[in-house]
Every structure is written in C-alpha cells, then in structure tokens.
C-alpha cells in the first residue's frame, strides 16, 4: 500500500521538477543564419521583441576558423573593443552555449574585426514572469493524474492483496 501511494506523489513531484526545465529556451543566435556576417543579420533586430529569461541559453553557431564569441561590457560592446573580454565563450568548435543565469544585460561581440561588420549582440535577461497559465495547468494536471493513477492502481492493489491473502491462507 505504502509504495503505491508514493506513485502519484512521485508523478506530481516529477511534474514540478520538469516544468521549469521545459520553459527554459535555447536561442539559436541569428536563427538559421547563425553568428555570421554573411547574411547581414542585424543582431539588435534579431533580439528585438524577444524575451530572454533566467535559465535560457544562447547558442552561437559560426565558422570556428574565423569568428569567436566574447562577452564584453557595454562600453566595449559599443566600440567593438575585444581587448579585454569579461568572458571568452569560445570553445573552438564553432558551437558555443552561453547560459543566461543572471538577470542583467549581456553584451557579446566577435573579435577579429567582425564586430565592426555587425557581429554584436546585446540581450537583457529577465526574471521568469509569475506563471499566469502554468499554475492552474499544473494544479489541474496533478489531481487528474492523481485520481487517474488511483483509479487504475487501487483495484490492482486490492486484487493483488486479495490474491496474496488467499495464498497466505492456503499455507
Ligand atoms: C569596460 O571596460 C573598460 C576596460 O576595462 C573600461 O575602461 C570601461 O569603463 C568599462 N565600461 C563599463 C561600462 O564598465
Ligand atoms: C578564447 O578561448 C579560445 C579557446 O580556449 C582560444 O583559442 C582563444 O584564443 C581565446 N580568445 C581570446 C580573445 O581570448
Ligand atoms: C553562471 O554561469 C557561469 C558560467 O557557467 C558561471 O561561471 C557562474 O558562476 C554562474 N552564475 C550563477 C549565479 O549561477
Ligand atoms: C541594427 O538596426 C538598428 C535599427 O533597428 C540600428 O540602429 C543599428 O545600427 C543596426 N546595427 C548594425 C550593426 O547595423
């Protein structure tokens, strides 16, 4: 009995654990044009209207032999100065993932002169908004799951229990 009662609890717990992860988004910078000067992407316009939330990631895909990904401060972002990056996110594969784990402004440029060609991105990272729809959804889902598991599991438990009782009595 004890173990079975834990199942709905576990399911509810799993839902709670999974839901924040499901809402984190991995942004492909420049979408399918990537981090590049080839397509004339304006990364300011790319970021415009998007909401970057705490826990999201930026995914930079680019030609590893040419560009890189440097995080700089606002001044250096504006002047395309790559001499003292705050963080060098370049791993060498041309596919770099940056976790946006602090609510602040982030400034990225490519060094090697590409910033002057437009490879500069500023994003503002916001706190996750209080879930207006997720809340009723989750609290609505859990009781459904709970009662559904109960409905399915309890008869099984009683059947197994009865069979076990019968078996014990036979001995
Ligand atoms: C950015 O860094 C440069 C060099 O370290 C410094 O001169 C400048 O004042 C900094 N700007 C900001 C906004 O912190
Ligand atoms: C950034 O890190 C990469 C990989 O470690 C390295 O090859 C590159 O020289 C670094 N770039 C800068 C500007 O520090
Ligand atoms: C954010 O991520 C960076 C890079 O992984 C890490 O160095 C830093 O400690 C993290 N900050 C927080 C507040 O988690
Ligand atoms: C991107 O477009 C904005 C206007 O939407 C403009 O102010 C900015 O200079 C452009 N950036 C680049 C790198 O061309």
TrEMBL record:
A matching Pfam family: Cu_bind_like
Keywords of this entry: Signal
InterPro entries: Cupredoxin, Phytocyanin-like, Phytocyanin_dom
Superkingdom assignment: Eukaryota
Keyword Cytoplasm belongs to the record: no
Domain Phytocyanin: 25-127
Signal peptide: 1-24
The protein's name: Phytocyanin domain-containing protein
């Amino acid at each position: 009995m004890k173990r079975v009662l834990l199942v709905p609890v576990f399911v509810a717990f799993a839902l709670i654990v999974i839901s924040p992860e499901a809402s984190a988004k991995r942004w492909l910078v420049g979408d399918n044009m990537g981090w590049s000067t080839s397509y004339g992407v304006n990364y300011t316009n790319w970021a415009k209207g998007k909401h970057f939330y705490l826990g999201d990631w930026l995914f930079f895909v680019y030609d590893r032999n040419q560009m890189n990904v440097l995080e700089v401060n606002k001044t250096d972002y504006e002047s395309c100065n790559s001499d003292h990056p705050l963080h060098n996110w370049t791993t060498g594969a041309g596919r770099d993932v940056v976790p946006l784990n602090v609510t602040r402004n982030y400034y990225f440029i490519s060094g090697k002169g590409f910033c002057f060609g437009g490879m500069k991105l500023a994003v503002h990272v916001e706190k996750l908004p209080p879930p207006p729809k997720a809340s009723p959804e989750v609290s609505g889902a859990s009781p459904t799951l709970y009662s559904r598991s109960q409905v399915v599991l309890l008869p099984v438990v009683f059947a197994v229990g009865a069979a076990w009782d019968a078996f014990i009595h036979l001995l």
